[in-house]
Amino acid sequence: MMTVWIVAAVMLIAASALTMFRVLAGPSTLDRLVALDTLIAVAMCGIGTWAAFSIDTTVTYSLTALALISFVGSISVARFRVPDVEEPPARQRVRRGQWGLHGRRGPR
């Protein structure tokens, strides 16, 4: 039975190492956000594995707290994040529909 715990620990360490690589080398902020969510999920799996190994249920409350904090953090970052690359101001105005075809504001 001990080999099962060792295999689970090795898999969790490998998953966290690969996820940390994505956090550090992510090309965009959304890639880093997804990697951080994955890292928190791996940490939650590690806590759950430890709870099963030690037969101690007191650590399971931390799973609930970590899940709630992770959810709120992800939603707030996704809601208020700034785009990685700014567009030129003229393209922003045309895309948002503030300027007509001939550069005047709205219909006459």
Automatic annotation (TrEMBL):
The chain crosses the membrane at residues 6-25, 34-53, 59-78. The keyword Cell membrane applies. The keyword Zinc does not apply. Pfam families: MrpF_PhaF. It is a multi-pass membrane protein. It is found in: Cell membrane. Keywords: Cell membrane, Membrane, Transmembrane, Transmembrane helix, Transport. It comes from the Bacteria. Belongs to the CPA3 antiporters (TC 2.A.63) subunit F family. PANTHER family: NA(+)/H(+) ANTIPORTER SUBUNIT F1, NA(+)_H(+) ANTIPORTER SUBUNIT F. This is Cation:proton antiporter. It comes from [Mycobacterium] fortunisiensis.
